[in-house]
Specification:
Length: 748
């Protein structure tokens, strides 16, 4: 997807900014209004606003949609809006409006569609002076039903189909505002009413706060076609003309189970078309609507109108998603080339059913994807659409300091309290305000060690939260003071401690939490241990590696980078290795992989090198155009994952060559990122404060994006707008933490 941020000049938000007497929204100059459509289908301040706008980055006119002002002011809405718009850029099919750009999340929201000239359906009815002809409505219905079928076959729920979301163009109707219902309210909030969307246009099941489902799209499509055929904002089956009445009655059924699925609806609409008397031009755009479209031409440059939709096999055509189109990288949308002007428009004002027939494969895919509606959508991660969370746990306005995944328990730490949540059910297992805040380490056998910021360590039973007793020997006033945990194996915890009167000497300690005794205590040589003084804070850390503990030299040691390896059973030195080739070591970029290779950039960061962890021999060197920051290794596939600017790079540990690269979306203002691998290693999660993005580890292909927002009234007082981050992933579940809520997503 192209994110249009423009270059130079002032960029206004969705409400627009006047510069030199002309209104601007982002990198767009407003050309002409297309109307604002409120609850009754006509102009209104609480509906989406459509305008023709000249896009400076694209050099042509687009249809610019901005949401209602009340929503645009909510930072949480902007996160969800950008995520839904990004997903819509991956929708295939001729009726999906091509997404030309989406506002960065630090601007007020807008989305640009490359389908000018166009008229929103309410504006078309206004131009026509009333309801549209039944043959034309049937033809529009066939196009939209095919689009909904194609979306459902991909596992996507449109959740935003209203009359205002249907743009009539010379090449046929185009659907916009994908995900408007989801964007308007947080994922866990009831959707009993959506600002800018009339209650009559929402499926009845959503009036009770239901989650958008495929059969809700069928109801919404029935509302759209009933509105087009009658001009009435509230659907009334009795007022519908035949043969539409018989078809749309099923769509408008209050019980979702009584509505047809998209493949059946498409067939019914095609049969309704065939039942109409054959009249020349009956399926053409009505004359008044065609005139209104033609009237937009003087506002458009010669290259303005959209090229007719590409056919099968063409870039962006059916069967080829935008991110795989020729010339488009992963996550981008191929933008249609310039088109001729008035003559091409007039040639296209009659659009037929050619190319809209859905073959058996498409119908089969739909049935397979919706065999059980709605439960299948809870666990089926379709391309571009995040799986529905298995559960959501509210922290009741408290902010989580950290979350630890310990078997079937997610231990959530808030200020002065610890809450255990069952990761299978999302139910609270227990909570306690006794334990000090700090980290937790899994000791096995249903126990965990609470690592305090200050005070004593404490062993806790995960099942009921009962304390098994504190370990006072390494608290602040003891001879040795706990500093940092390395890990735990079979109840023995390994940690760094300070000793001496000035606490500037370091020891590594192994402590048996079950026997409540020290296994060994080994002073560290000079140059090791002082890891917390690293001003960059993200240097190489201590690790448990098989039977050894790997301890990197301190960035402040003044020596060449080195590792000290201690025997985990005895604490004796197993080996020590200096890496003379790693110059001016400062910590954050040198990384020991789980596959026995140490990677480190050259002094100028223009090359990445691989060394034998034992022996320090350089085994490969690869040039780097941009600095590589390693994050984690999958020892099974021997692949190292890291970031390079605005992209994730997967490197072969064996030779340092790129396995794949893929761009990531940062939203323009979020710079704290995490990379987490799923339990099977099949999915890579990249998360920042804007959203979570999932990628296939085989080739880096984007799978889906997930954005949620915090609940209002968080303890920090900074409002909503901070989205989720993947903190841990294991055994089919990824835990996502927003500012004050925890989600579980099904993965792999």
């Amino acid at each position: 997807m192209h994110t249009l941020t423009g270059s130079g000049g002032h960029h206004g938000g969705a409400t627009g900014t006047t510069v030199g007497g002309q209104e601007r929204v982002g990198p767009h100059r407003i050309v002409a209004p297309l109307g604002t459509y409120g609850p009754e289908g006509g102009p209104g301040a609480d509906g989406p606003r459509f305008r023709l706008a000249y896009s400076e980055p694209l050099g042509r006119v687009v249809v610019l949609m901005t949401p209602p002002a009340a929503l645009a002011a909510d930072p949480g809405f902007r996160v969800r809006f950008a995520s839904e718009a990004g997903t819509s850029a991956r929708l295939a099919g001729p009726a999906a409006a091509p997404v030309a750009g989406v506002a960065p999340q630090d601007e007020e929201p807008w989305v640009a569609y490359d389908c000018a000239p166009a008229l929103p359906l309410p504006a078309a009815l206004a131009a026509h002076g009333g309801p549209l002809p039944v043959p034309y409505v049937c033809q529009v219905g066939v196009s939209l039903a095919a689009a909904v079928l194609q979306a459902h076959a991909q596992g996507l729920v449109y959740a935003g189909l209203t009359p205002a979301a249907v743009l009539l163009t010379a090449a046929g109707p185009r659907l916009v505002a994908y995900g408007a219902v989801r964007a308007a309210a947080p994922g866990d909030g009831p959707r009993t009413a959506v600002p800018g969307l009339p209650p009559a246009w929402l499926p009845p099941e959503q009036h009770a706060g239901g989650v958008p489902r495929p059969l809700g799209d069928i109801y919404a499509l029935g509302v759209v076609l009933a509105y087009a055929a009658t001009g009435a904002p509230s659907p009334d089956v009795a007022a519908l003309p035949e043969p539409l009445a018989a078809v749309l009655a099923g769509c408008l059924a209050q019980d979702p189970a009584q509505r047809p699925r998209a493949d059946a609806l498409l067939q019914q609409l095609q049969q309704a078309q065939q039942a109409l008397p054959a009249e020349p031009g009956q399926e053409q755009v009505p004359g008044a609507v065609a005139a209104a479209l033609t009237a937009q031409l003087p506002s458009l440059p010669a290259q303005g109108p959209l090229v007719p939709p590409p056919g099968p096999g063409a870039p962006g055509g059916p069967g080829q998603t935008p991110e795989t189109s020729a010339g488009a990288g992963a996550g981008e949308t191929s933008v249609p080339p310039p088109a001729p002007g008035r003559r091409a428009l007039l040639r296209g004002l009659a659009f037929g059913a050619a190319g809209l027939a859905v073959g058996g494969g498409g119908v089969y895919a739909y049935r397979r994807a919706t065999k059980e509606d709605p439960p299948v959508y809870r666990t089926t991660p379709a391309k571009g659409a995040a799986p529905t969370p298995l559960w959501h746990y509210s922290l009741q306005g408290q902010e989580a300091d950290s979350v630890s995944l310990l078997g079937r328990i997610a231990a959530v730490e808030t200020m002065g309290a610890l809450t255990a949540v069952n990761v299978r059910t999302g139910k609270k297992a227990w909570d306690s305000d006794v334990f000090a805040d700090g980290g937790l380490i899994d000791l096995g056998r249903g126990q965990a060690l609470v690592i305090p910021t200050f005070g004593a360590m404490e062993v806790v039973e995960l099942a009921g939260g009962k304390s098994k007793g504190a370990i006072e020997d390494y608290s602040v006033n003891s001879k040795m003071s706990f500093q940092e945990a390395v890990g735990a194996v079979d109840g023995i915890v390994y940690f760094l401690a300070t000793r001496g009167s000035d606490l500037e000497e370091y020891s590594m300690v192994a402590y048996d939490t079950r026997k409540r005794e020290e296994v060994w205590n080994k002073p560290l040589p000079k140059g090791y241990g002082d890891l917390n003084d690293n001003p960059l804070s993200d240097g190489e850390r201590m690790k448990v590696s098989g039977r050894e503990l790997l301890i990197p030299s301190a960035p402040t040691s003044g020596f060449a980078f080195s590792y000290l390896a201690l025997d985990r059973r005895t604490g004796d030195k197993a080996w020590e290795q200096k890496y003379e080739a790693i110059e001016d070591y400062d910590g954050p970029s040198t990384f020991a992989t789980g596959a026995g290779t140490l990677v480190s950039p050259s002094n100028d960061a223009d090359a990445l090198r691989g060394f034998e962890t034992r022996g320090a021999k350089k085994v490969w060197e690869q040039p780097m155009k941009e600095h590589f920051s390693p994050e984690l290794t999958d020892a099974r596939s021997r692949v190292l994952y890291g970031t390079q600017g605005a992209q994730i790079t997967a490197l072969s540990v064996k030779n340092g060559k790129p396995v794949w690269r893929t761009p990531v979306y940062s939203g323009g203002r979020f710079d704290v990122t995490d990379i987490v691998l799923s339990g099977t290693g099949g999915t890579l999660f990249y998360s920042n404060d804007a959203e979570v993005q999932a990628f296939d580890t085989r080739d880096g292909a984007p799978l889906w994006r997930f954005a949620t927002v915090s609940e209002a009234g968080g303890s920090s007082g900074d409002g909503t707008g901070i989205s989720g981050r993947v903190l841990a992933a294991d055994d089919g579940i990824a835990l996502v933490l927003s500012k004050d809520a925890l989600y579980a997503l099904p993965v792999d």
